[in-house]
Amino acid sequence: MSGLDDLPPLREVIGAQNLIAKKSLGQNFLLDLNLTGRIAREAGPLAGRDVLEIGPGPGGLTRALLAEGANRVLAIERDDRFLPALADINTASGNRLIVEPADALGADEPALLARHGLKTPVTIVANLPYNVGTALLVKWLTQPVWPTWFSSMTLMFQREVAERIVAANGTDFGRLSVLAQWRTKPRMLFDVNPKAFLPPPSITSTVVRLDVTPDPEPAPLKMLEAVTAAGFGQRRKMLRASLKTLGRDPIPLLESCGIDPTTRAEQVPVTKFLALARAYAASP
Ligand code: SAM
Questions:
Q1: End of a domain among 166, 188, 212?
Q2: Which of 20, 87, 163, 181 is deepest in the core (most CB within 10 A)?
């Protein structure tokens, strides 16, 4: 019986099927089995778990996820050219791979997972173009119900974005840091040299794992988005000025949360942003 180990090397598949990387879709493929295996192990343990992968491409990481024992992998891919290569991986894995040809940004993940009978919460794993990765991370972090349909996310980002996700207060700290640290425990795992990709991108990448916090401090999501958008939208201004766009007098709002109105957004810890969102929701 042929299995994942009997599949032809990825480089051969890419050559034989003429899968030339498209810049417009941010395609930089990982061919190094040590690296794809390492990412899959860091996302694990996967044995018996169902996985959502975004952007499988020719399937390097997909193979690793299946080899690490994922029960089933649902992979959302926008570029149909990869479907034959992914179909071969499905066969070699004993039909454990489901491919959904779609744009992940518009996908209704819970509906897809339910339609294919995957067991939630799933593990999310992705090596995505960076603009799409950030937009998806925000989409996932702003799910209306929490805890949600995934329990962890292991994602590749441009190093600067990874630093913003995990940043404590200071210059890298922003909306993404507040959202990520409110609802998950994010940590940077390791850097990936551009040479590991085909073709090599111009930046260093970093793998980040975010574990869902099952019981985050309560805060109204829309209000939190509003206060962080106002505060970080004009991040050089003091909060007493930048929060004026909220349509309330910022000074009593800030003082009711114990925040000095002369501080800037990047100096405010996550818990204070949550308090501010609650105060904003409660203010007339
Ligand atoms: N996972 C593969 C790997 O590690 O070699 C490919 C990674 S490549 C950086 C990004 C992949 O995401 C490509 O296959 C691309 O077609 C796909 N992609 C880009 N935008 C997407 C979107 N909006 N929805 C789904 N897939 C997308």
A1: 212
A2: 181
CATH, residue 252: 1.10.8.100
pLDDT tens string 113-157: 999 999 999 999 999 988 899 999 999 999 999 999 999 999 999
For the chain, how many residues are written? 284
Pocket residue to mutate for ligand 1, from 35, 77, 89, 154, most atoms within 8 A of Cβ: 77
pTM for the full predicted model: 0.96
Give 143-210 as a DSSP string: -SSSS-SEEEEEEEEEHHHHHHHH--SSTT--HHHHHHHHHEEEEEEEEE-GGGEESPPSS-EEEEEE
User: Do residue 126 and residue 184 come from a single domain?
Assistant: yes
Residue 77 CA to ligand 1 center (angstroms) comes to 6
Give me the domain span that covers residue 208.
2-212
Give the whole-angstrom CA distance, residue 138 versus residue 17. Answer: 34
Q: How many independent structural domains does the chain possess?
A: 2
CB-based contact 209:243 (threshold 8 Å)? no
Q: What is the pLDDT of residues 74-120, one digit of tens each?
A: 999 999 999 999 999 999 999 999 999 999 999 999 999 999 999 99
Residue 111 shares a structural domain with residue 70:
yes
Name the domain boundary from 155, 185, 212: 212
Pocket of ligand 1 (CB under 6 A): 25-30, 54-57, 60-61, 76-79, 103-105, 127-129, 132
How many C-beta atoms surround the C-beta of residue 119 within 10 A?
A: 11
